[in-house]
């Protein structure tokens, strides 16, 4: 079946899915997003773009931003980041405090909140203008001239950051946070409030499917050895305590966010972004996972 037909096939199946997911409400602004929004954008490196739904509508990328901040930190200090965090799946919810207490303030991986907060701390220490430089980094890898944040989401999450503040305080008590807690929290919350569309996300993730190069260019913006590692962490840790289930059902490295977005890549083949706000109990987009499972099944293109 041709790719555009496959996407239409997936779209036609959606109304028959048992939808019990709930839009994230712990960040009040996210709850205002209509739950029936849906978009999917497939970018095949060789044959181009295919899409269904509101693929140009921007939404809050939330934890998908953790891939960008990890990439920037790795390009600044390389493997030294792994002195401050690990690369093991956590098997716990994304905002859990439990492991930190036993593991001396070293987060399991960069894609749970604790790990992403350490990455934010690293970027704050290394960059003069961290917010602008992170947005410029995303713009540079994606060919999107301007990347913006949703200020209402930013303010809304800042007022409800109790858990992230706890994670930071706990890690600071173990000596694993250098900067002022309020500053780290502000920067982390800012990166989570970045808004992008499925079309934009599939372009921004093309370098992860293309050995660090933007399609049609020959210079790697991120060395292939680092891309290999980032993709490995997406595979093992991109979906918190559902990383195994995502591998089992979809079979691609990827990253989700509580805004209902998921991006996944097939190295050498394609990137795909999907958006549907209702989340399953593990905090991953319920219909997004279904759509990706159907994509790899109908195309026969998973990495396994
Ligand atoms: N999983 C997510 O997308 C979580 C991101 C959200 N900003 C938080 O810190 O809770």
Automatic annotation (TrEMBL):
Signal peptide: none annotated. Substrate binds at residues 63, 113, 157, 164, 188, 240, 258. This is Glutaminase. GO terms for molecular function: glutaminase activity. It holds the Pfam family Glutaminase. HAMAP family: Glutaminase. It catalyses: L-glutamine + H2O = L-glutamate + NH4(+). It comes from the Bacteria. SUPFAM superfamilies: beta-lactamase/transpeptidase-like. Homotetramer. Gene3D superfamilies: DD-peptidase/beta-lactamase superfamily (3.40.710.10). Keywords: Acetylation, Hydrolase.
